[in-house]
Amino acid sequence: MSRRILSDPVRLREEIAQAAARMIAEDGADYATAKRKAARQLLGEQRVAGEWLPDNEMIEAEVRAYQALFHADTQPRILALMRRLAVLAMEDLAPFRPYLVGAVLNGTATEHSDIYLQCFCDSPKDATLHLLNAGVDFETSETRHFNGRGEVETLSFLWKGQWPDRREARLLAGEVRAELGAPVGIHIALYDADDERGAVRTDASGRVNRADLQAVQALLAASDAGDSN
Predict the structure, then answer these.
(1) Which domain of life is it from (predicted)?
(2) Quick check: is 56 in a domain?
(3) CATH number, domain with residue 109
């Protein structure tokens, strides 16, 4: 690839954000990977200073624009399915104070998205035992703490309608199979109870970064009423 002359940071950020948005919407790439690949597509192997790169909010705006243009007929339906599944999971995890984060919360979820939950527990081990007793076959890994203070234990599994043991979960599993054609990944990060006090904050646009069960239920009710997400 020929070297591109860097002269207009505003336009370059827009082009990188648009290219990254396509990768996120179509391939399910994460933001960091999509930004890196988009920059390489446009600039080859040139090293680019941070101020030439779009931030995640700019990329998210481009994801929304791309979905509205190319997936307006399917994306809202997929998002509603994912939020319904999140509600089921959060209802079962209610003793551990679950919050929804990520694309399913902010409204950009696609068939490639996973559900990300954060639980704030007096004893994270109790949440692990809760899933074990429910027969959930999960893997354990670590996720970076949202405040950047080390890492927290995270439980991950593919959801196929096996949990919670409720009729609603089995019915929803059929809808998920028909719409997505594949299981949905669920990731549950386990935080200490004290971390909850610093968890609920707004971003630069005034939106919350995480939402409790009642807030997610309200999002569902709003979409059922025909409101935009």
Answers:
(1) Bacteria
(2) yes
(3) 3.30.460
Q: Which domain holds residue 129?
A: 75-224
How many domains, the chain? 2
CA 172 from chain center: how many Å?
19
Q: In tens digits, what is the pLDDT along the chain, a chain of 229 residues?
A: 444 555 678 888 999 999 999 999 999 999 999 998 998 888 887 777 667 789 999 999 999 999 999 999 999 999 999 999 999 999 999 999 999 999 999 999 999 999 999 999 999 999 999 999 999 999 999 999 988 879 999 999 999 999 999 999 999 999 999 999 999 999 999 999 999 887 766 655 667 789 999 999 999 998 877 654 4
Dist. CA 138–CA 158, nearest whole Å: 8
Residue 197: burial class (beta carbons within 10 Å; 0-12, 13-18, 19+): exposed
Dist. CA 36–CA 23, nearest whole Å: 11
Q: Which of 52, 70, 88 is the endpoint of a domain? A: 70
Pairing relation of β-strands 184-192 and 151-159?
Answer: antiparallel
Give CA–CA dist 59/42, Å, rounded: 16
| Residues 1/44, Cβ–Cβ less than 8 Å | yes
Residue whose C-alpha is closest to residue 173's, from 83, 75, 111, 81: 81
